[in-house]
Amino acid sequence: MTEVLPTDRAGLEVISPDGAHRVVRVVESPFLIGRGGETGNHLQLDDRRISRHCAAIISEDNRLYLEDRGHRRGLYVNEKSVDRCALEDGDVISFGMEDSYRIVFRSVAVESSIQNILSRMESVSGDESSSGGLNKLNLLLEATMLLQSQLPLDSVLGTMLDHAISITGADRGLLLKPDSSGTLHVRLGRLRGGLNLSPESLTPSQTALRMALTRKSSVVTEDINQADFDLQGAQSVVAQNLRVIIAIPLYALPRASSMESAVHPILGEFLGVVYLDSQRPAAFSKLERQMLDALAVQAASVLDNARLVEYERERQRMQQELDIARDIQQALLPRRIQDYPHLAVSGINLPCLSVGGDYFDIFPISDDRTAFLIADVSGKGLGAALLTTMLQGALSGIAMGANPVRVFDHINKFLYEHAEVGRYATMFFGVLSRTGELEYINAGHPPPLLLRRGELAEPFTEGSCPVGLLAETTYESASVQLEADDTLVLFSDGVTEAADPADEQYGIPRLREALAGREDAPLDYLQKAVFDSVEKFTRSASQADDITLLLVRYRAAASAVTA
Fold first, then answer.
1. What's the pLDDT tens digit per position in 430-458?
2. Is 92 strand, coil or helix?
3. Residue 369 phi, psi (nearest 5)
């Protein structure tokens, strides 16, 4: 039964593959997510790799849960695979694909957390109603408002450090951030009065930092003389005559998994440390400690937001590069497939990612001979796409009259010596003459099917290893005589290995069934019949491999007329 939820209960920030943002309110339970609207999806995602019945958000016991409803690649929350997961504010939902949608869960309850903190502090401040306490509360309120500002990041963080110094009465405050190896470096330094400190001149207590990181909680020392012995004897503490040290580790918003209660939250990504010290002892009231904790939450939020913004910028930059690579790769494919006097051709390539590793081409060698090929580079993405450009450059020598066998031997040795480990390519290369003689080299590729007089044959039995796999491989050509109107069906394994939601593969028998009885059909129609068959079988389940099809039909009658 559908449950109507309050319109201000929660929202989803939907980030499209092109970087566009929109917010969708979760107003019903179950709240359905998937491709298309015909199945009643409340959030419709325009990506053919996402299942129609993908996911649902369920309300139970005043909490919202994400459930996997059959997405083939699986659901991920904060990059961890989940079947069912309690959602927390800031959780990032993804679908197992880097170039697809991302959804950020937003909770109204967390949005009001600052007001809850202030309310609790006001109750505490009943016993500390001095103007100093009220001024500190005002500083905290100003700090929380910084989150909504459009000021530069360093300006926001600097102001928050100033507030922390004012609340604690410290002499100086530092913000430290980890590098890629986890080593902390000073990002900002401030003196009392809002003066900047040079990061090179700062020597925070490494002992206090280690203690805070080991405990994953704040280290607040009001007087070093009464502190932990290790901290009392720390060299930097003694050298600087420090009496007060505060080290607060900052983490992204806590996440609670479906297997753990909210009582034991999982800390998010480590973001840095707020460090304060003073040469004078201090005594922090309960109010001041709460305000310090609240400021730490705000500093973590600012850093977390900045991290997400930087991540989004990097994602957009990578997407731009992928778009350029896709344009380059698509330019490698024949722009306009034309028919030749002795053959007709039709081909299509559908990469499973923005760029893929499949490639096909057709080009004349002479007036009487035309070459065609289909290739499948191992792996996916940008690396595979770059390797296809190398292949095309190497194969261009055949168009200038080079011996195909020698070209393949050269390509194999070149790829083996220069390509990264594990990169190789399967290829089927053929040269069809006007008389119907087909000379071919099969480098580990699925052999084409031959559609002849309504029957399907597999005459291409000769073959060798993929290029780039073994250094000492040598290649030989073989030949087959084609008859009038014979049609060659060349395909990548993305066709036969296309899987339905139950992970059953399409296979050669279904491909044969799609081709049977269509020997007289135009190639475009034949191509559509195959893809319709694959689409019907997979039921739009996302695929893990590129799908490429190349059809070549020998025109013996046309060649005879020309002769």
1. 999 999 999 999 999 999 999 998 888 88
2. strand
3. -135, 135
Claim: this prediction has a pTM higher than 0.85: no
Rounded Cα distance between 218 and 295, Å, is: 12
pLDDT tens sequence across 221-238? 887 776 666 676 676 677
Q: How far apart are CA 68 and CA 74, in angstroms?
A: 7
**How many residues are recorded in the chain?**
563
* Cis peptide upstream of residue 30 (ω within 30 degrees of 0): yes
Token pair in block for residue 148: 């909504």
CATH-assigned architecture of domain 333-562: 4-Layer Sandwich (3.60)
Place of tokens 């066998």: 405
For domain 112-312, the CATH superfamily is GAF domain (3.30.450.40)
Q: What is the DSSP letter of 194?
A: T
* CATH of region 3-108, choose from 2.60.40.420, 2.40.50.140, 1.10.10.1400, 2.60.200.20: 2.60.200.20
- What are the boundaries of each domain within the chain? 3-108, 112-312, 333-562
- Looking at residue 33, its pLDDT comes to 93
Return d(Cα 238, Cα 251) in angstroms, integer.
Answer: 29
What's the CA gap between 371 and 389, in Å, rounded? 18
Query: For tokens 């290790």, what's the residue?
Result: 230
Query: CA–CA distance from 348 to each of 117, 330, 376, 488, 545 (Å)?
Result: 60, 11, 14, 14, 14
User: Nearest Cα to 65, choosing from 45, 91, 39, 43?
Assistant: 91
416: CB partners within 8 A, 6+ apart:
468, 469, 470, 471
How do strand 172-178 and strand 184-191 relate by DSSP bridges?
A: antiparallel
Pairing type for strands 75-77 and 80-82 reads antiparallel
Using alpha carbons only, give the angle 75, 76, 77 rounded to the nearest 5 degrees: 130
Residue 124 and residue 148: Cα distance in Å, rounded? 26
What pLDDT sits at residue 448? 95
